[in-house]
Amino acid sequence: MAAKVKEIQTVEEFNALIFSGKKVVASFYADKCGSCKTIGPKFEKLAAVKEYAKIQFVKVNIDKLPDIAKKFVVTATPTFHAFKNGLKVDTLIGAVPAKLDALVEKLSKL
């Protein structure tokens, strides 16, 4: 069964996940962002990779949850943040598939 990308619904849900001790990759997006739609399927595929099973992949709609976007200084979409043990360990701004691969690979080895 393929892993599923979770859509974050509340600030509390996001904070609980980040501070749960899990490795997390968060995709910050906006509904009207064309680049977000372009890289979305790549993000979904990475979530399904067996070697990344211990990483939680989540999406955060910055229009619906602006407080999270503000807290993590998301000024452009898409933006990807990698977290481990509540700490942000890497960031990617933009829809660059190879760099997204590298971000996830780096997080998997931490």
Automatic annotation (TrEMBL):
Pfam families hit by this protein: Thioredoxin
InterPro entries: Thioredoxin (IPR005746), Thioredoxin-like_sf (IPR036249), Thioredoxin_domain (IPR013766)
Keywords recorded for this protein, A-Z: Disulfide bond, Redox-active center
Disulfide-linked positions: 33-36
Record-linked SUPFAM superfamilies: Thioredoxin-like (SSF52833)
Ranges where the Thioredoxin domain occurs: 1-110
GO molecular function: protein-disulfide reductase activity
Family classification: Belongs to the thioredoxin family.
Name of the protein in its database record: Thioredoxin
Organism field: Lunasporangiospora selenospora
Lineage: Eukaryota, Fungi, Fungi incertae sedis, Mucoromycota, Mortierellomycotina
